[in-house]
Specification:
- It is a single chain.
- Helices cover 31% and strands 13% of the residues.
- The protein is α+β, with helices and mostly antiparallel strands.
- The protein has a five-stranded mixed beta sheet, covered by helices on one side.
- The two termini are 23 Å apart.
- About 3% of the residues have low confidence.
- The structure holds FE2/S2 (inorganic) cluster (FES) (2 copies).
Length: 166
């Protein structure tokens, strides 16, 4: 199933969208943050809150395949779209290649930035761009990490790219 495919326009109240491929319908205030809907209304606590101001990228998720800061997105803007969170990466208990690479390289330490990093990296790897260090650094430029110095994260993404594109 294409988890990035927008839903067809349907009549009725509330907001309707996909989360990790599953249809969701919610009656919530339109300005409620996507981050709060995910964590509090849907129980998807993998997505983290850092700054709450669009600066750190800890809350990064994908909407129709594009990386967004979920702390800045009101749920009314999500209506009819497809959201992917870090919970979509592991399937049937099997880690995504990116998650495995982060584990292997030590790309995750305290872990607060990791879900957002993984989603920014997922969007990058889902694209066709060459996985040079420069391109990877650009792809995660909106995601801050206080622990790793970024070297291990870039190494993990490059390793996952090499595996996926082999
Ligand atoms: S919590 Fe959203 S960008 Fe920092
Ligand atoms: S691993 Fe701690 S902020 Fe990145």
């Amino acid at each position: 199933m294409n988890t990035d495919a927008p839903l067809a326009d349907e009549p009725g109240g509330g907001y309707r969208f996909l989360v990790n491929g599953d249809p969701v319908e919610l009656e919530v205030p339109g300005m409620r943050r996507l981050l709060d809907v995910l964590r509090e209304d849907l129980g998807l606590t993998g997505t983290k809150e850092g700054c709450g101001e669009g600066e750190c990228g800890a809350c990064s998720v994908l909407i129709d395949g594009a990386v967004v800061d979920s702390c800045l997105i009101p749920i009314c803007q999500v209506d009819g779209h497809a959201v992917r969170t870090v919970e979509c990466l592991a399937v049937g208990g099997q880690l995504d290649g990116l998650q495995t690479a982060f584990l292997q390289t030590g790309g995750a330490q305290c872990g607060i930035c990791t879900p957002g990093m993984l989603m920014a990296a997922r969007a990058f790897l889902d694209g066709a761009g060459e996985a040079t260090d420069e391109a990877i650094n650009e792809a995660i430029a909106g995601n801050l990490c206080r622990c790793t110095g970024y070297t291990k994260i870039v190494e993990a993404i490059a390793r996952a790219a090499a595996t996926e594109r082999a």
